[in-house]
């Protein structure tokens, strides 16, 4: 199966997250910086909410922050999600 080269433009930029990429990056970094470092083994799977980050950003950041200590060891990511 050949990967698609089409990248869909963001449909809700400015609604559920900032439209400005730099502002969005700063906000996400702030969410991640507020997380405690993981003290557990690497998770085998994460179930992470994908609502607008004003609703679930803190929870999503806590999940993804669990992966940070293992960033040099993770070689494959499988992402399952809705097609919207």
Helix content: 25-40%
Largest sheet: none
What spatial form do the alpha-carbon principal axes imply? Answer: globular
> What would you call the structural class?
mainly alpha
Order of helices and strands: HH
Termini separation: 21 Å
Give the low-confidence spans.
Answer: none
User: How many strand elements?
Assistant: 0
Our count of helices gives 2
**Approximate strand percentage:** under 5%
Supply Rg: 15 Å
Mean pLDDT: 87
Give a written overview of the molecule.
The chain is an all-alpha fold and 84 residues long. Helix content is 31%, strand content 0%. The chain contains 2 helices and no strands. The radius of gyration is 15 Å and the shape is globular. The two termini are 21 Å apart. The mean pLDDT is 87.
